From TrEMBL:
It holds the Pfam family OmpA. This is OmpA family protein. Residues 228-347 form the OmpA-like domain. It comes from the Bacteria. The chain crosses the membrane at residues 158-178. Keywords: Membrane, Transmembrane, Transmembrane helix. InterPro entries: Bact_OuterMem_StrucFunc (IPR050330), OmpA-like (IPR006665), OmpA-like_sf (IPR036737). GO terms for cellular component: membrane. CDD domains: OmpA_C-like. PANTHER family: LIPOPROTEIN YIAD-RELATED, STATOR ELEMENT OF FLAGELLAR MOTOR COMPLEX. Coiled coil: none annotated. Residues 183-205 are annotated as: Disordered.
Amino acid sequence: MADSYYRTIKGKQYDRELLEIVEKASKRSKAPLSKKIATSLFKAIVDGGDYTDIEKRTVKYIRDNFNFATDADEYLRTEIRKWAAKISAPASKKVSSKSAKKSRTTSTIARMHDIKESEDTYYHVYDNETEDEIEPTPEYNELVELNRYGQKPKSSTYIRYVFIGILIVVLICLFLILRSCRGGSKDHSSTKTSNTQIEAPKTKTEQREQLLPHIEIGPGQVSIQFKKRGDAIRYINDLRISFIKQTLNVGSGASDSIATLAEALKAYPEIKIRVKGHTCFIGELDENKILSEERAKLVRDELVKLGVNASQLDVRGFGETTNIDSNYTEAGRINNRRVDFSVLSIDSK
């Protein structure tokens, strides 16, 4: 049955139907696969009613090994994501209903089995069996075991008391040793605590460096002095900080922009903003979500270093979901790799 639905390539299973659609289309023409072929692939996936791991692997294999037209590739990618998001909630309901049905069926079978068993027990006739041939009950066996354990030799009780006495002596010795070392341990623990407090501020930076190595943002110059709050708000909402592909390295001019933004927020501490991280569509969806969050946190930390109150800053990562330009051109992808800002509220106090 497995051979009719799946094809094994290099030890991994792929959906046979999806592979045959693109293979037949590639044999008919050497041109890039059209949007019509992408539509056929999407319909075949939707007909299954669920987007399985094998179908995901097959779609990735097809996009890596077959040449699609630009509009076909974008259509297939967009439609699959929309459909997968739409079925994710109902899918869990279907699974739960199936499991509920299965549990009801299992409980029904169990009840029928119990009824049959009780009937068999009720109508059992001993015929010619004697009392000696009937097997002892579990209760009888338990009583025998309890009697056996209750009749232990007295020597075991004596050994137990000796062991408890030795244990008490050892514990008293350990207590005295620890008490004598308390003075030295206090000095050592205070030194260790002070070292930990010195190293604590480095922890967040070190974790980010291990996750995504990057070049630290240097000091920047403030380019604008804000005399009105409205000018500061316009600057915040229009500001974008660009990033290098798949990294936490900022583009040119980012240090000056961050310094100017910090100046605006310090001048008007009643303004609360959201720092929003974004990526282009290169890379996996989950990885891009993490990368966008780290970009936003990096800018947030730089603003705090420059004296901005952390309570003014809210951080979000949106991954590749909020593009402002096309992902099919280099210039568009550069515009999408960014951190931008929006004013959330202005405290009237």
